[in-house]
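Record type: ASSEMBLY
Status: queued
Input:
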Amino acid sequence: MKNLLFLPLLIPLTTAVLGLLAWNRIKLQRLIGVCGTAALVCVGSVLLAEVIDGTILSVQAGNWAAPFGITLVADMLSALMVLATGITGLAVTVYSLADADHHQEALGYHPLLQVLLLGICGSFLTGDLFNLYVWFETMLIASFVLLTLGGRREQMEGAIKYVALNLTASAFFLAGIGLLYGVTGTLNLAHLALQLREVSHTGTLPIIAALLFAAFGIKAAVFPFYFWLPASYHTAPAAVTTIFSALLSKVGIYVLLRVFTLIFFQETISAQPLILAAAGLTMLAGSLGAIAQPELRRMLSFCVISQIGYLLMGLGIMTPLALAGSIFFILHIIAAKSALFLTTGIIFRITGSTETSRLGGMYHQRPFLAALFMIPALSVAGIPPLSGFWGKLALVKSGLAEEHYLTVAAALAVSFLTLFYMLRAWSEVFWKARPAGDSTVHHALVPLRRRQMFGPVVALALVSLVMGLAAEPFFQLSLTAAEQLLNPGDYIDAVLGKQP
Amino acid sequence: MESVLAVVIGGLYAAGMYLMVRRSIVKMIFGLALLGNAANLLIFTVGRLTRGRPPHIPPDGVVPDLPLADPVPQALILTAIVIGFGVQAFALVLIKRVYQTVGSDDQDQMTLENQERGGES
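Status: finished
Output:
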């Protein structure tokens, strides 16, 4: 059963290879892509079912005993993230059937998407820091090509910033890995945790922690490292932007949660005010940026940043409830954000624009689309009973319990700002009259295309709705995941065998 | 030897950072390459420099003689070099395409959207 852990890597890899073999047969590529991501969802569910009772699965590649070989580990957090990756991947693949243009598909869009999923799943499952670097690069290369596919001028301009900042982050990450190896002589996460648990962290260890925080912070778009994100994300096609904003920045947050609870627990505690300040400023900067944007996709890109702040807030507070809030929030934001970006893609497909100044009056023609935008928008803002509310409630509650009043105030203020710009965007697009002199023809979607585009959005909006209305089981899972993070003993035992 | 390499690494980081903040995208790519090389040398140096002690097991022994040169950092560097090579190859193609579409290698010219937006508001 342990070999189950290889499947979330093997499935996207096989799918990508098969897709490349079917290079000239786009229809076959599409079919392979949908089947592959559907299989990933199934494996993700099985993996979650395996770890749901709190066991931690681990497997050593090639049977090289840890810490010498490559280790794959799945605890609750990893399993949840893999399942979320599968669901988002499936939704985006199905949506791409209708929305990806043929030029991009001919350039290998579908296999590239699978390579991206491979890198993401690898990052979630690996138990080795250098292996994590390799998965990061896999993910980055695929995302570089996906971002530039098509070669429009704004894509090129966005890509330069994206590539430069992400490669800088990789260089920092690599330097951190090297220094950590120099100090400890190991890169296996469990082995590192074991070695660094008892000793007091002095000398270079806090510096390494800071280097790694910067590296992961750039990937996650944490203040003050976020400028590349709103400059690049919105230039890609809607489906690509969706998967970037739903999963790529969350990989950064996942790794922060993993590494800073497992290895740098002491630094997280001593740098708590800094992390909380970064969290608060990320929220504020993101939401203020979003308010200033009249274009939907740019606004949503800034909104991605402000939500990253909430995820970081849980790490800063570092209590089981706060971490559970963060984990719940990750799952919520993946679903809600994907739904919003895909809805924006539909709006663009119908009207040919995402500028709010050129949009308006869509409510009369498309009330269903208006409702579809409204649900995740309110969910992101945190209106009960939608999913965003419960995540924020847990974070705010634990923040008050730990007396971090400033961060809590920022979190609450940003919620109001989010509500404001989400509702403004909604009324601009759907409610206000169509701008005078607007002569653009709204394209009707053919039935098949409509199903392919609306299906994933409805599914994701439903996930957000269910997570809100039946929050209890999801929150239990998040709480288990948080407790596993805070008690790394089980993780270490699962990888290295029972410790004396 | 460590101190020499430390100075070299510091120099590479400084040069890389300086090139990164230049406006020309060509220099930026050179800067990225230097940063990558600096990180690789850093791994090599902090992994301990042990001269003339390959990690071989003597014919009559079961463990290698200590002290030995740790092969792991070199394996890490090898992997990082290969990845860096691929990434830099992509980056070179990217700046060529950027130069073709934008008609300049100056990053200040790559604000098409901001200009458009500024014109509208």
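Annotation: The radius of gyration of chain B is 21 Å.
Annotation: The mean pLDDT of chain B is 86.
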